[in-house]
Design brief:
Number of helices: 8
Helix content: 40-55%
Strand order of the largest sheet: 3-2-1-4-5-6-7-8
Order of helices and strands: EHEHEHEHEHEHHEEH
Structural class: alpha/beta
Shape: globular
Bound molecules: nicotinamide-adenine-dinucleotide
Distance between the termini: 46 Å
């Protein structure tokens, strides 16, 4: 049970009109936050925003100027931004091979990967102005584990995981914690095309409520640059990635690795 009190906080949720984003928006509002719901689905988005006494802003996250306008709308309504949940996403189902469609591919990468890069860059000035805050991004287990079902989805979600694991180690130095949530299959409209197949295979679905619990755990933690997995029946926690192999000298002994602390020194000292 959370002890979070978000009274006076301003939160933004992209893809907040349905599914996981809707669940997060409702939970954050229930904890006292003023919530901006950003989505391409105007009807559902407006309805969720009205329900939680928040505001709706029509936003296609694949469009950078739309991301900037989204943040302006947050500031106009609530004067600040403290929590940004960059969650909007689609399953791409981009065929590889004879049926490959480059337009469909660009759209999938545009929403799931560019949308997060654009979102982070759009919210950063407002979070800095607030003296810090939280960015929580939605990726997927497809960003951790091979997903032959949809390799392009795996590519953009792995990209998001890499982005946040790296960016979170830089942003934390200015009080902005950036983390990523990687749910397994969850019970939303997104899984509709494969729901029957998952059921046949006996794969359990996460409830939206269970997935939303992880966003609160992330907000309550002190982590940054972590990738929190969500799997049915397991406590959600940061995934322990295996340490990457470091360099060796000619005689086989360990050489200095460009680890995050070294990279930070390089950036600071030029
Ligand atoms: N449901 C799952 O099994 C599952 C598992 C792992 C990760 N995810 C991820 O969780 C996130 C939310 O998915 P969901 O399951 O709640 O799906 P959903 O379809 O229920 O909700 C996604 C929301 O994003 C919105 N959206 C789509 N494209 C958009 C765009 N270009 N700009 C703004 N909004 C847009 C949709 O209108 C919708 O309201 C996605 O990033 C998805 O990849 C879902």
């Amino acid at each position: 049970m959370t002890t979070l009190d978000l009274t006076g906080k301003s939160a933004l949720v992209t893809g907040g009109a349905a599914g996981i984003g809707e669940g997060v928006a409702r939970r954050l509002a229930g904890l006292g936050a003023s919530v901006t719901v950003a989505d391409v689905d105007e009807e559902r988005g407006r309805s969720v925003a009205a329900d939680i006494d928040g505001q709706f802003i029509s936003t296609d996250v694949a469009d950078y100027p739309a991301n900037l306008a989204m943040v302006q709308a947050v500031l106009a309504a609530y004067g600040a931004l403290d929590i940004a949940v960059l969650n909007a996403g689609i399953i791409s189902s981009v065929a590889m091979g004879a049926d490959f469609d480059p337009v469909q591919y660009r759209r999938a990468m545009g929403i799931n990967l560019d949308g997060v890069v654009f979102g982070i860059n759009a919210v950063l000035p407002a979070l800095r102005e607030s003296g810090g805050g939280d960015i929580v991004v939605t990726a997927s287990m497809a960003g951790i584990a091979p997903t032959p079902l949809d390799p392009v989805y795996a590519a953009n979600k792995t990209g998001v995981v890499g982005l946040v694991r790296s960016f979170g180690l830089a942003s934390v130095h200015e009080g902005i914690r950036t983390n990523v949530v990687c749910p397994a299959f969850a019970d939303t409209q997104l899984v509709a095309p494969i729901r029957a197949g998952l059921e046949d295979a006996g794969v359990p679905l996460l409830s939206v409520a269970t997935v939303v619990d992880t966003y609160l755990a992330v907000l309550e933690s002190s982590s940054s640059g972590e990738c929190w997995f969500v799997q049915p029946g397991r406590p959600s926690e940061p995934f322990a990635f295996r340490r990457a192999p470091g360099p060796r000298t000619a005689d086989g002994s360990s050489a200095a690795a460009a680890d995050p602390a070294t990279q930070r020194r390089i950036v600071e000292n030029g």
